[in-house]
Amino acid sequence: MTLVLLLSACLLTCLGQIAQKLAVEAWRRSPESITGVLTSVWLWLALGCLGGGMLLWLLVLQHLEVGVAYPMLALNFVLITLSGRYLFKESVDLRHWAGLLMILLGVILLGRQP
Predict the structure, then answer these.
(1) What Å distances lie between residue 61 and 15, 35, 107, CA to CA?
(2) Which of 30, 31, 56, 100 is the one with CA 20 to 30 A from 2?
(3) Which alpha helices (DSSP H) does the chain contain, by range?
(4) Residue 48: is its pLDDT beyond 80?
């Protein structure tokens, strides 16, 4: 159950980051007044996802040591990079892919409890 909470917290945080990116892109395309910015659906979706991710994170910390749980959040680097690459058509070079592989290996090593 703790793993499900942890992965859900990562996923919500990732979705929040994607919603932030979509909000900024919408603002860039059509500059709005402060009222328009504050009523952006993407902004509120980002806040909801990030807030939900934080609440799930608090539940995770009730069950795992912070030294084990926190490195698992590095999965967000992987998820965000994949989102950037495939949703936003951002380029990812070989060095970046190698870094993601190292992050995944680190998560696996640090996540294994003795």
Answers:
(1) 21, 37, 17
(2) 100
(3) 2-29, 34-38, 41-63, 66-72, 75-87, 94-111
(4) yes
